[in-house]
Amino acid sequence: MTSEEAAGRRGNAAGASARNKSSHYVTMREVAEAASVSVATVSLVVNNKPDARISAETRARVHDAIRTLGYRPNALAKTLVSGGSRFIGLVTDAIATTPFAGQIIHGAQDEAWKHGFVLLIANTEGNEDAEREAISMMLEHQVRGVLYSTWYHRAAEVPKALQETDFVLVNCYSPARDARAVVPAEVQGGANATRLLLREGHRRIAVVNTTTPSPAHDGRLRGYREAIEEAGVAYEPSLVFDARPDQEGGYGVAEELLAQNPTAVFCHNDRVAMGLYDGLRERGLSVPGDIAVVGFDNQEVIAAHLRPPLTTVALPHYELGAAGIQVLLGLAETAGDGRLEIDCPAVERASVGPAPAPAPVSDAMGRRPL
Amino acid sequence: MTSEEAAGRRGNAAGASARNKSSHYVTMREVAEAASVSVATVSLVVNNKPDARISAETRARVHDAIRTLGYRPNALAKTLVSGGSRFIGLVTDAIATTPFAGQIIHGAQDEAWKHGFVLLIANTEGNEDAEREAISMMLEHQVRGVLYSTWYHRAAEVPKALQETDFVLVNCYSPARDARAVVPAEVQGGANATRLLLREGHRRIAVVNTTTPSPAHDGRLRGYREAIEEAGVAYEPSLVFDARPDQEGGYGVAEELLAQNPTAVFCHNDRVAMGLYDGLRERGLSVPGDIAVVGFDNQEVIAAHLRPPLTTVALPHYELGAAGIQVLLGLAETAGDGRLEIDCPAVERASVGPAPAPAPVSDAMGRRPL
Lengths: 370, 370
What we know:
38% helix, disordered N terminus, 4-stranded parallel sheet
């Protein structure tokens, strides 16, 4: 929000049209008021989201307001010129409980600085009152907009107070698809992880999925399935296990997993892989000699330091934060559904080896091939 | 810094004494100017640091300026009343490279909020230009003061720009002892870890120290030594090993460590303990049955999830951040040397068992005690 917007919110008597007669910089908020819609809706219309669930009538109303008020969507340049707000807000539900959130902050902060903005950060532990207070503080400080981020990728209820300003969801999304969101590409990541195993000839690939319902649960499994089917391998539900998404989960699933004789395992995350390593080791199996293992997350203190170092797929937390700022500033576009998906790249280390050669088949004379 | 201070910095023509004639709130910065010393020096004198290396003459000059200007050190109450700065700055050298820094931010943020302040955060990756730019931005935003924090406890060169405002070092300290600092109590932590082992009857306790020169290297070893000597156990340098402070270091030291026949090991951190677990396991030794292991850090994703869960000592990152804010706001006192040490509490899990009974000694008749 610019200082003009703040003045308006504080009860400036002049209406939007009156203010427009001066050299006043028209804001998205004023367009929203004039069209009787939320700022988020204006943002979706302005950024050309054909698939967003906005009626043609509403779109027309927004476009009318834009024309009437003379709104120019490139707020960044305007703000830079007008010397308006230098702040962007970042509301997170948890810095405390995960090493990950820090990377989202880091990416957002670097990108904000690059464009001359300072990040105001509030950690709310998911508490609604704290969220309201944080967002209200940010509005008072005339933020250009707010990133609302969660520590794991999930559906989020968009706090009402966010509608007062321009905002972008990071690592979460609104199920109603009425807000722009930057999220990890779970399907692509799951396919990426699976292809690391397929490439080495593995065909019997188990999946240790999480017991937590989440986009990661559904998306990574879908990616796995797409990748194996693309490689001509049939999907076998008996190879898919659900386990707690931590070391204990990975350790506990070893027995039933091995009963299915996989040659490779795609784990929901690196912590699961770490626990599975222990479970395999206790049964005298070595990684990657006896069984290949791929993780997910590329978690800082774990993945590179397991024995053997873990091949995995990175959750792009830094990039999520940076992209959130870019979307907020109009420097990056979201897709038709209002989402921008960030790729999860493969990080290859030492836990994947070639699949064992298929058991030799005797020919009619009982001779085996050399 | 308050808005009055900022006005002064921007070249307000009125001198400090002139300004004092109005109801103007006198700032630490004005005292510093009047006494021709740094803000940090005023802060040390005001907070009664008898051991700080400040000459009696300088102290007298500061006290004169305080009397002349009518300075009242409780800036917090003043700021709240005057409606001055609502910001506190936090400059960190790395959010990216460690899961820990987030906890310092979290503690600082919670404590700042509690007192009605908002945290402005800048991550500089230790780059001097970025530091200068960040601090200068914070001064422009009229921060009440700045926390300068590092991701591991170390000596730090205080950036010159910090002298423009009130500041507190967090997780680092100035070797010249000319700045207030909140740091983890390494000696106490090392003693704490060692006592967890002594209490279970261990007497032959190895130490895997770090190869990195640091307060943690020296302090934890000193704590170990104090604890064993207090328990009547002689210090044996052959039981002390240096290793890389990660999993690879702990794994690599297993062989030579076992050659000294310890019944217990105090590891420099949890990552070292994780690697040592692997090294011990490969040699058929079980924890805690054959050997007890204690870590340090209580690192989120590791300590509780090793097999067995690791008994360790927590690095109080959250508390460091919170205490930094308290010191800055005059709500907590540093010790005579300008430092406030935060305790490292024990976190007991399952990697420490009783020491093996001493080998039975035959009596003169060749009989062994029952």
